[in-house]
Predict the 3D structure of the following.
Amino acid sequence: MNNKIKFNYGFLCLVSILLLTSTLSAKTILVGKSRATTSIKEGIKMARHGDTILVDKGVYKEGSILVDKEIILKGIGQPIIDGEFKGTVLTVRSNYATVEGFKIINGGRSETKDLAGILVHDSYGVTILNNILDNTNFGILFQNVFNSTIKNNKITGENKLEAQSGNGIHCWRSDSLLIIGNTITGHRDGLYFEFVRHSLIWRNISTKNIRYGIHFMFSHYDTYIGNVFEENESGVAVMFTTNIHMYNNHFINNWGDAAYGILLKEISDSEISGNYFNQNTVGIVMDGCSRIKMEKNRFYNNGWALKISSSSDDNVITNNNFIGNTFDISTNGSLVLNDFNGNYWDKYEGYDINKDKIGDVPYRPVSMYSMIIENNPAALMLFRSLIVTLLDKSEKILPGITPEQLKDDRPLMNKLAL
């Protein structure tokens, strides 16, 4: 055995011994009545790296708790930590810490400071699991956090004013996060990400928030799967981001003058597939978007299924269902640089002589009336009038106002089974 092999073998043995020693020396500290201590703060002071602190059921009026060690802080029977409105209730500033099973209530309020139920900063390997957060400013706030998890938390806000409310889950300048199975309601934004990369947002429910169900900017290479965004004041906003993937999300019942299922602003090189847009003022708004593949989505019963600006180009909209929408497509210009082929449109009145299940004549999804409303919103009062029907029929026969090239040359005759 040469010296290099001897060195590597010895080093591995040393690491194994240290890990085993650390595991054997780890202890469990019990907090509660008739326990080692009745104070969570005292329990943390008593702990060393690798220890577990178990907190009995009860009410602990201890705000400004600091977890600064690699420990597991776990509640048994959902103990309540009452911050008494005095500031951030619990702060994590340690790698590989876990906070699990607590009900955290009554965080402090501030219009100038980011106060939260749980604040994690400058850490990695942190897990926030199975907690209830009620009536805090921000719910869970991550700042400069890596390789960490926020899972199965229920976060409820009670403030009705946007300026005095924080976000349910707020992540800033973080990477490689797992945000899974959380329920957020009553906050400013349900979820907010800024400069967050390479993260998975999966199976969260964000409803009835003051502004957006989710709002993210400058957050590249993230994936959103199976989330529900319902009855939020303005819907969902996605801005200044590239390489995002959104699969099988639900955007439901986002109604209002400035509401939409999702706003895509300055988004590029992304994929939006298998999503469900139902009963929104606008299903999707696209502004300045490029190279987005949008397929296998369902647009049902929206005011507008899709509004796309003339500044958007090289996008592919294919294999989608457009059913029961007041208007299918709306645009603000005559220049068309996008592909709309191969979709199902319930308003299509063409025929299929050769029985290949593709319409023999193109479908033009932009109606003349939608173009008029785009420039004169007051014209909406004429909706369903005879004059509007005549205008749209004549425009389909002899297009003059609607964009000539915005058409589906291969409209599907049958609804897709999505």
